[in-house]
Model the fold of this input.
Amino acid sequence: MIWNLGSINADNFYQLPHLPAPGETLAAIEFDQGLGGKGANMSVAAARAGARVIHIGAVGSDGTWALERLLEYGVDTPHITVVDVPTGHANICVDANGENSIVLFGGANQVLSEQMIGAALTEASPGDILLMQNETSGQVYAAETAKTLGLHVTYAAAPFDARAISAILDQIDVLVLNAVEADQLRADTGHALSDLPVRDIVVTLGAEGCKWVSNTAKSEIFYPAYPVDPVDTTGAGDTFTGYLVAALDRGMNMADAIDLASKAGALMVTRHGTADVIPDLKEIEDHDFST
Ligand code: RIB
Done:
């Protein structure tokens, strides 16, 4: 079972010829809205990968649609609280090459209390997974409580904040981060990834693939990506992480879990949108990744 302390956002997508420069006013070619937030994206991805996921989060009274949509996508929602603060949102600019730039408003994601998180985690069992990203309040309390209760902690270090990750580094079992974030972590801690007190570290390398650093086996293995024509990279990393966690929760070994997650992430970059368009297992099975 996966307990995901995660953000829930309304995503506003602006399709643009290029990302705006400072001082530039730019007309969008297209505009769309959907469900997002790194947390919600990971919950949906893990549910679509066949895992039981209980989302721990918060929305404002303007965000009950998001709660209903998560439920529709197979995510358990009793630990999503409706609070007196507006739902988080993200304004996402996507350029012609599928690259993005995102402005975040945390809103309800930042008022998650220890009481809300504790009420959820007391229902967890030893061996369950606590998944987190850096878009909510309460991460230190959640990580400490989860470890006390015998859960495994997986952390996606995005958006990267050296202080946020340092505060929970000792509690993390599986860390997922991209190459830029890995460099920032090295610079901040002064340690190589192989010297961190984290069992498994997966570094995503975009179109190149990913690298698994096992600090128990003392090994570092590279996995190439599946080639695709990207139209929008938004949410691909979240899809990768959600699938990875779901696969590990199902007892897959790391190599097989990375393979499944890489396929899900590859398919995701061929789609516009975030949580609403995350592929399910059947779509991954039906897709020909050899071309
Ligand atoms: O990783 C993509 C996500 O980042 C978007 O869904 C947006 O809401 C932001 O949280």
Observations:
- The first strand starts at residue 2 and ends at 5.
- Residues 3 and 61 are 23 Å apart (CA to CA).
